[in-house]
Specification:
With about 350 residues, the chain is of the alpha+beta class. It has one domain (about 10-345): endopeptidase domain like (from Nostoc punctiforme) (endopeptidase fold (from Nostoc punctiforme), Alpha-Beta Complex), CATH 3.90.1720.10. Helix content is about 30%, strand content about 15%. The chain contains 9 helices and 12 strands. It has helices spanning about 65-70, 125-130, 145-160, 175-185, 200-210, 240-255, 280-290, 300-315, 345; strands spanning about 10, 30, 60, 85-90, 95-100, 115-125, 135-140, 195, 215-220, 230-235, 265-270, 275. The strands form 3 sheets. Strands 1, 2, 3, 4, 5, 6, 7 and 10 form an 8-stranded mixed beta sheet that branches. A two-stranded antiparallel ribbon has the order 8-9. A two-stranded antiparallel sheet has the order 11-12. Helix 3 crosses helix 4 (about 175-185) and helix 7 runs antiparallel to helix 8 (about 300-315). The radius of gyration is 19 Å and the shape is globular.
Amino acid sequence: MRPLICKLTLISIFLITSGCANFPEPSKMRGYQVPYPLKTRLLSMDNTQQPILKSGQIVLSESGDSNSFFFALFTERFSPFIHAGVLVLDKGVPYVYEGLGSLPLFVGDNSPSDSISGSITRRPLRRYVEDENYTAIYDLPDNLNRKAVVSFVLEQFNKQTPFDPYMDSTNHEKLYCTEFVSEALKAGGLPPRKLTPYQKNSSISAVHDWLKIRDPSVIQGISLIQLDNHVATLSKLRSQREIQLYIAIREELHRRYTPDQKLGNVFEWTGFHLKFRTAVEKFHTAGLKLHPDDEDLDWETAKSSVQQLASKMLGPFPVAQRANYSDLKINPAFPCTKIADNLTRCLH
């Protein structure tokens, strides 16, 4: 399943799907030290290393397709994560508990959000990692009540608390993914997480209207963790170099998505697939090929190289307009712009 910041499975213009395959052997699972923003130690997914995993740990991930970046553009602050859950060990087996919503084939003029259903569910960690582009695990702060966090998670799972397709952070009768994690942390004694405003962009506003997202802000996965509490980064698909470049590429595209831009400048809709425009796809592909022989590629080098490539392939863009995402600072609020007439005008 793929995200609407919280993993909506849509089978219409914003439909996102994924299949489930067999999980690889532990020896084929990659674990990496990634300085930004997933810094610290390696974790092998074999039985000797699993004691590093504890119930209550926060799991953040990114799915690796154009759909995930579509929703990542919604917020003022770039985040390398698009989905969140909580790890709980059940008889020694790690599961990720998460809020998921799904929608069968959608036809009609109404908002697809009205037909989305789902609840708090769980996936084995191994399958979760296989489904994602990369996955990061963070421990809880020392002063948090871990048992209370886990108790809240299991209570919501057993109650089958409904998924919230409208992303309403004020109504906790239904929960979207990061809201679910935020409420679990609150149950453990942590203050409510700071919300991140959505971009004030006419194209994004039109999509929000269609999806009936009324809140002006959302709980981002990056706000749920302390970077120093990182336990592991896991990926079946990406090397350390590729993860560094991937994050730098998407951060650069986010930086360039200014209030005057339209989503249709970045994406196009073909059949049942949302894909990058040709120029964006070529930049993305070229960026992942940078520094092919440097598996110890550091974040600053990756960021600088990607920015130089973007200037060459997409045109110059002043460095001064770059937010310091490494320090997790929020962009200045964008000025309001006119809302587009409809979704079609947004996308084409």
